[in-house]
Write a structure and sequence with these properties.
By secondary structure, the protein is mainly β. About 0% of the residues lie in helices and about 45% in strands. It has 1 helix and 14 strands. It has one helix spanning about 135; strands at about 1-5, 15-20, 30-35, 50, 75-80, 85-90, 95, 105, 110-115, 120-125, 145-150, 155, 160-190, 200-230. The longest helix has 4 residues, at about 135. The protein is elongated.
Length: about 230
């Protein structure tokens, strides 16, 4: 994905960046809780116009980023009813003896595990060549993280039951849209006094316009516990 950064009227060109989105798993098998999606174009005003450049030196529409006066936001519009567990670590197994009334078991150690999202992020953009930093502004999308658990807590077992300390990252499938976009007027402008030959165009900011879509597994929480079975 090409990320196009704009420039302010008084600033120099911002270097474009590139980023590659990861593959993602479909939502077809999940029951989603629908939410209302409203699309209302923003009202343009003279004060909202900016002279912007992009890496392609073209006048296509752009998403606002950290170098522009206005920034595009990601908006969550739909999410799965339930969360799912990603077990990132499993510890040693303990079994309660059969010849005792019951057992109390505590692993009594500390464990730190680094983890990486097992599924990725999907971005769909219906507007051709729209410049963006969209994967960076998708809410709570965490590719990697670290979980530390001190297993000082105790679990009670029946005779013959097994117990195993585990660490869990809890996730929820979520999808949404992007809000706010720069529309080019097609009129050329001077991006900076120090760059008189720069190719820039006047843009109008549309703050309430919703467009595109994204879907990802958002991290809800991470914790340690015991897996108990018989």
């Amino acid at each position: 994905m090409t990320v196009n950064a704009g420039t302010r009227r008084s600033g120099d060109s911002v270097v474009a960046r590139k980023k590659t989105s990861k593959k993602w798993m479909g939502l077809a098998t999940l029951a989603l809780a629908p939410m209302v999606l409203l699309a209302s174009p923003g009202v343009a005003s003279a004060a909202s116009q900016e002279c912007l450049q992009n890496s392609e030196n073209s006048s296509h529409d752009m998403a606002g980023n950290s170098s522009t006066d206005h920034q595009t936001q990601s908006v969550s519009v739909q999410q799965a009813n339930n969360t799912w567990q990603d077990w990132i670590w499993r510890g040693p197994t303990f079994q309660c003896p059969w010849n005792v009334p019951s057992c109390s078991y505590a692993w009594q150690q500390s464990k730190t595990t680094g983890w990486q999202a097992s599924v990725g992020l999907s971005i769909k953009i219906p507007i051709p060549k729209v410049g963006s930093w969209l994967d960076e502004i998708t809410p709570s999308y965490t590719r990697t993280g670290s979980t530390t658990t001190s297993y000082t807590f105790t679990t009670n077992l029946s005779p013959g039951q097994f117990a195993q300390p585990i660490q869990v990252v809890q996730r929820r499938w979520t999808q949404g849209v992007y809000q706010g976009i720069y529309h080019s007027t097609g009129a050329k402008c001077l991006p900076s006094p120090t760059n008189p030959n720069g190719k820039a165009f006047e843009y109008t900011w549309s703050p309430n316009e919703r467009w595109g879509s994204w879907a990802t597994n958002i991290e809800v929480s991470d914790y340690g516990t015991y897996n108990v079975w018989k």
